[in-house]
Amino acid sequence: MKCLLLGLLLPLCFLAQKKYYTIGEVLKNARQLTYDSATVKIRGYITEKVGKTTYLLEDRTAEIRVDIADKFLPGQPFSDREEVIVEAWVQYEINKPVTLTANRPVTHD
Fold it and tell me: DSSP letters along 48-97, please?
């Protein structure tokens, strides 16, 4: 009986973990991710600051703009060579570039 319960609950544990998306996947599936109000988790590099709270985030697949409020930035300075993890909502509008809005603190890997 215990083995049966373990066998049924173990897959649920893996489903509860958040998947890391690539920026390419986010761009490709932006419409659906926006509709689902999903928080995406991306590993990448913040390469440039392009506005007051807007940054460029890139990984090996693509580049995207991400809006990160000051309260979500790491306390310690970081460089464009340090991989960070960004959790954000996908912002998709027809005829506009896909962007992200951070909804949790940015962390170092």
Answer: EE-SSSEEEEE-SS-EEEEE--GGGS-SS---TTS-EEEEEEEE--TTS-
Q: What is the pLDDT of residues 46-80, one digit of tens each?
A: 999 999 999 999 999 999 999 999 999 988 888 88
108's enclosing H/E stretch is strand 107-108
pLDDT digits (tens, 9 = 90+) for 1-56: 544 444 544 444 444 456 899 999 999 999 998 887 789 999 999 999 999 999 99
Please state the pTM of the whole predicted model.
0.79
**Residues 59/74, Cβ–Cβ less than 8 Å:** no
The pair of three-digit structure tokens given for residue 80, joined into one six-digit string: 């464009």
Neighbours of 103 (CB within 10 A): 13
Q: Which residue type occupies 106?
A: V
For 47, the enclosing helix (H) or strand (E) is strand 39-49
DSSP line for 15-31: HHSPPEEPHHHHHHTHH
